[in-house]
Amino acid sequence: LSVPITTYCPEKDKALDLTFINAEEAFKSKKTSDLLRALVVYNLCSINFLVENNAKLMKLFRGLLGERLFVYFMKKTFYGHFVAG
């Protein structure tokens, strides 16, 4: 099974380069806010305390923030980064 390294993009009428050799090409479809969110989320995920205690921390913050604000925060950070749609 082979996977092509380019994908046709009809909106731009040219193939997208998916090799990541050229960073500008690889990330041109992303907004700066998406890249900043990715940077923040990945940095938070590198903190062992947060990873090891995520369930407890989520329960704590859900209680402190309330359901609506907690869901909003999650959609703007972790959920929004890792879950499509």
Fold and architecture overview:
- Keywords: FAD, Flavoprotein, Oxidoreductase, Proline metabolism.
- Its cofactor is FAD.
- Converts proline to delta-1-pyrroline-5-carboxylate.
- One of its GO terms (cellular component) is mitochondrion.
- It catalyses: L-proline + a quinone = (S)-1-pyrroline-5-carboxylate + a quinol + H(+).
- The protein has 85 residues and is mainly alpha-helical.
- It folds into 2 domains: 1-30, no CATH class; 31-85, no CATH class.
- The chain is 60% helix and 9% strand.
- The protein has 6 helices and 2 strands; from the N terminus they run ββαααααα.
- It has helices spanning 23-27, 32-45, 48-52, 54-65, 67-76, 78-82; strands at residues 6-9, 14-17.
- A two-stranded antiparallel sheet has the order 1-2.
- A hairpin with a 4-residue loop joins strand 1 (6-9) and strand 2 (14-17).
- The radius of gyration is 17 Å and the shape is elongated.
- The two termini are 28 Å apart.
Short summary:
This protein is mainly α and 85 residues long. It has helices spanning 23-27, 32-45, 48-52, 54-65, 67-76, 78-82, and strands spanning 6-9, 14-17.
Features:
two-stranded antiparallel ribbon, 60% helix, Proline_oxidase, 6 helices, mainly alpha, 85 residues
